[in-house]
Design brief:
This protein is an alpha/beta fold. It is 39% helix and 29% strand.
């Protein structure tokens, strides 16, 4: 037993500093994911297509403005109105307004609004698609505050979707 405890103590003392260094460097390391190809420095946005039949064309414009604002703030790609090195095309596939939580016999108090979009990020320089992906997000809102609460919920959904699309575009593929 004495042999094993001295061997263990020797090993721990000798390797403690190395192990501590390894754990500290692992904790400090950050992984961003993929990065954009070197030749892609700018992005343009195709007009957003709304196939949702939800009946509010403002949501298409709100999503377009939010995407442009988030990409400009991120500054990974220069946002251009004309031809850029890349193009982002977004189609709103559906907007659903559903009951969120209701027990049988209970009045509806909250609703859930969900937006689903299809996105294609296209490399205009090489003429090929970088990714095609579907995104979905939702928000819960109070029925008592309609229409203002629904408008705030859709703004929240659009902001979340824009964040997801931005992250996927600049580092997630």
């Amino acid at each position: 037993m004495n042999f094993f405890s001295s061997l263990f103590n020797h090993f721990v003392r000798k390797n403690f500093i190395s192990l501590l260094f390894i754990f500290l460097t692992i904790g400090c390391y950050s992984f961003k994911g993929g990065s954009l190809p070197e030749h892609i420095k700018s992005i343009t946005f195709a007009p957003i297509v709304d196939n949702s039949n939800y009946g509010n064309p403002m949501y298409r414009d709100m999503l377009a403005n939010e995407l442009i604002r988030k990409f400009q703030r991120d500054n990974s790609l220069k946002v251009l109105e004309g031809a850029g090195d890349s193009r982002l095309a977004v189609t709103i596939n559906s907007i659903r307004d559903e009951t969120a939580f209701a027990k049988p016999g209970e009045l509806e108090k909250e609703k859930k609004i969900t937006m689903e979009v299809a996105v294609e990020f296209f490399d205009s320089v090489k003429g090929k698609s970088i990714y095609k992906r579907n995104f979905s997000n939702y928000a819960i809102y109070s029925v008592a505050g309609i229409p203002a609460s629904r408008d705030r919920a859709i703004e929240d959904v659009i902001s979340k979707l824009a964040d997801d699309i931005l992250l996927s575009t600049v580092s997630g593929w």
